[in-house]
Amino acid sequence: MVSRLGERIKGQQMSKRGKRSNFRVVISEQIKEQLIEDIFFRRYKPGDKLVESALAKNLSVSQTSVREALRSLIAMGFLESEPFKGITVRSFTKQDLWEVYTVRAALESLSIQQLAPKITEEQIADLEQIVEDMVEAGKRGDITERMLLNIEFHKTLIRQSGNKLILRLFENLQFGSYSLMTGSISKMDPVEIAARHRDLIDVLRSRDPDKAAAAIRRHIESVGKPIVESLEAKPPDGDQMDAAEKIGG
């Protein structure tokens, strides 16, 4: 992680002098993305401590850039900060995963209901391009890129709905989304993944909000529910998923 990202950052430092503020933002984003990948592949495991000064030294970047990246990852749920303990990789429980699954079903059902009647051909084309990129990443065997594109597809759906609150809530669930996808995307055929997302696009073409909401619930259930059940994660009561569907529908 350190050598690959460090070399990329050093190269950019040579070409972007004089644009320090914007450059720092770019570097902070790159650090954040790399740390997400490292957590996904368990290079950093739950409970591992991340030290700001050590990361900055290894990457040859400012502590400010590292600090911004770490703050963002704390807000997204990947890391947690505790007094006298510092910043560590968050442990994700079975109950956490169940909650992410049910809330995502509700949020995405609502957003796609809002999107379906007004979706444009240009927006459909944007979604189709993401699916094509998924296929290409699958051909390369790039699991990380497939996962990122999967999340980008769902974020794009929400963004296209125009509901900024749902988008913010979805972004705060990203750690759980990555955890769910860790157990699914790496084992699934890229062609199957693409087909599932194309099915969603086809439903959106009908401009029927109820059909779209039902389709996204089935889509999330087909990926998330088996993973949660395989971890023996059970809801505190039997009504959580019903409540999610009512909110989404």
Describe the overall structure.
By secondary structure, this protein is mainly alpha-helical. It folds into two domains: 2-89, Winged helix-like DNA-binding domain superfamily/Winged helix DNA-binding domain (Arc Repressor Mutant, subunit A, Orthogonal Bundle); 94-248, Four Helix Bundle (Hemerythrin (Met), subunit A) (Up-down Bundle), CATH 1.20.120.530. The protein is 73% helix and 4% strand. It contains twelve helices and three strands, in the order H-H-E-H-H-E-E-H-H-H-H-H-H-H-H. It has helices spanning 2-15, 20-40, 52-59, 63-76, 94-115, 121-140, 143-161, 164-171, 174-182, 190-205, 209-230, 240-248; strands spanning 49-50, 79-82, 86-89. It has a three-stranded antiparallel β-sheet. Helix 2 crosses helix 4 (63-76), helix 3 packs across helix 4 (63-76) and helix 7 packs antiparallel against helix 8 (164-171). It is globular, with a radius of gyration of 19 Å. 33% of the residues are buried.
- Overall geometry comes to globular
Structural class: mainly alpha
CATH class of the largest domain: Mainly Alpha
The CATH superfamily of the largest domain bears the name: GntR ligand-binding domain-like
Report, as a whole number of angstroms, the end-to-end distance: 43 Å
The fraction of residues in strands falls at under 5%
The assembly state of the depicted protein chains is single chain
Uncertain runs with pLDDT below 50, 5 residues or more? 13-18, 233-249
Strand order of the largest sheet: 1-3-2
How much is the average pLDDT? Answer: 80
Task: Tell me about the largest β-sheet.
Answer: 3 strands, antiparallel
* C-alpha-based Rg, rounded: 19 Å
Residue share in helix? over 70%
